[in-house]
Specification:
Elements lengths: L7 H19 L5 E2 L7 H5 L30 H11 L6 E4 L3 H15 L15 E6 L3 H9 L3 E8 L2 E2 L1 H10 L3 E6 L13 H8 L1 H4 L5 E5 L17 H8 L5 E6 L11 E4 L2 H14 L5 H10 L3 H30 L5 E3 L8 E5 L4 H10 L2 E2 L17 E4 L6 H27 L2
Pyridoxal-5'-phosphate (PLP) binds next to helix 4.
Length: about 425
């Protein structure tokens, strides 16, 4: 359907048909949720073997009694695993806590309160500071900077990563920029994988930016491929080493969507200076991480190959759900001017761009018949999508039949909201 080509009579006829279809959903008393990128119970079941895996043996390979205090940087086995996921040496990896988001939060807070590096002015004492935010992006990143009153500047995502010309120009013009949030592989929500050229230019930002600028490289979906022969993300640390910009990048990942989302292990990889500074402040907050859980992970994933085998099982469960979303979008919108989307090769999301000005109405219509979608605007700083068009679809949690039902509602809501908006525009 091309609504820009339809006349008023045709649009009114379609509106009546779609409204009737929509009314039909009301009687179904649906209660569906496509909001958050959580693993399903079946995916979590894959790691149930972790329960009791230690069999009473609590010693790490180097003899560390994991039940006791200490070892702030985490046990070697897990630093190695985290390093293998990120493609860096274990010596520059810290394994801590269960949430990479918490590590990002701490990094921002430490830089804000104490400075990004030894001797640096704390961000809080530098006046108005800013972060660059590729959009659409991850709402929880934006929440961290928003809470501290750090101004966020939108930069567009492209098919190969963020608009690097815009980022470099901003950094050259604006001395107040202190950070940049990115998800380099299977970006949340677009699924974009940064090209080698983008990774290299990202690594070079440390040459343009202030010394206390930090690139938050959130590689949450490093091993979350949906298919065999996945795209390969270039190694940013290799470029940084060549360019002398190691201090400008902080890398994050976790096992949240590998083992248990609420009881995994998170990782920070950073230059020796950045890591030492982080540990100095972390050591005030805690005497050490949950090393028993780290050892359980080391037993379950003795190496990267074991971990990748597990990821193939996750992919088998996720593929049909992503396929259902993509099939529905294709069948309904391929030959239309109602929306566009990207086909992700991994990660947890499908990003849909509706016609400008209708995303909030689509989400409202869906909610009114029992289908929860991520709030429109959530993928933008301050919850404000300037064009009101992006909607993030997260099909991992519901069972397949529910994903299909949800999509049936979603496509009707997209069509209905779009036709109504067009009619309104014609009859202002
Ligand atoms: C890009 C991104 N980073 C981080 C997280 C959260 O990771 P963690 O569970 O390690 O805090 C998510 C979860 O949805 C995410 O999409």
């Amino acid at each position: 359907m091309y609504i820009d080509k339809a006349d008023k009579a045709e649009l009114s006829r379609r509106e009546a048909e779609l409204a009737a279809e929509y009314e039909g959903f009301k009687s179904q008393k649906l209660n569906l949720d496509l909001t958050r990128g959580k693993p399903s119970s079946r995916q979590l079941d894959l790691s149930n073997g972790m329960d009791g895996i230690l069999g009473g043996g609590y010693a790490a390979a180097d003899g560390t009694d994991t039940r006791n205090y200490g070892v702030l940087e985490g046990i070697h086995e897990l630093r190695k695993l985290g390093g293998d996921i990120l493609g860096v040496k274990p010596e520059i990896v810290l394994a801590a806590g269960n949430s990479s988001l918490e590590l990002m939060h701490r990094c921002v807070h430490f830089a804000y309160l104490f400075g990004a590096h030894e001797g640096a002015t704390p961000w809080k004492d530098e006046g108005r500071i800013k972060f660059i935010c590729p959009v659409p992006g991850y709402d929880r990143h934006f929440a961290i900077t928003q809470e501290l009153g750090i101004e966020m500047i939108n930069v567009a995502m492209r098919d190969d990563g963020p608009d690097m010309d815009a980022i470099e120009a901003l950094l050259r013009q604006d001395p107040a920029i202190r950070g940049l949030w990115v998800v380099p592989k299977y970006s949340n929500p677009t699924g974009v994988v940064f090209s080698d050229a983008v990774v290299e230019r990202m690594a070079a930002l440390g040459r343009i930016a202030a010394k206390n600028f930090r690139l938050f490289w959130d590689n949450a979906y490093a091993v979350h491929d949906l298919h065999d022969n996945p795209p390969v993300l270039a190694n940013i640390m290799d470029y940084c080493e060549r360019l002398g910009t190691l201090d400008s990048v902080l890398q994050f990942t976790s096992t949240s969507k590998i083992s248990f989302a609420g009881a995994g292990v998170a990782f920070l990889a950073a230059s020796p200076g950045n890591l030492a500074k982080f540990k100095k402040h972390l050591g005030i907050a805690t005497i050490g991480p949950d090393k028993v859980n780290q050892l359980r992970h080391a037993r379950m994933f003795p190496d990267l190959r074991a971990l990748k085998d597990r990821m193939r099982l996750h992919a088998e469960m996720l593929r049909p759900k992503f396929a259902a979303v993509l099939r529905s979008l294709k069948e309904n919108f391929k030959d239309s001017d109602l929306g566009s989307w990207q086909v992700p090769q991994g990660g947890y999301f499908v990003s849909f761009d509706a016609r400008p000005g209708v995303a909030s109405e689509i989400v409202r219509l869906a909610a009114a018949v029992g289908v929860k979608l991520t709030p429109a605007g959530a993928t933008f700083p301050y919850g404000r999508d300037p064009e009101d068009r992006n909607i993030r679809l997260a099909p991992s949690l519901p069972v397949l039949a529910e994903v299909e039902q949800t999509m049936a509602v979603f496509v009707t809501c997209v069509k209905l909201a779009s036709v109504r908006k067009k009619l309104q525009d014609l009859n202002p």
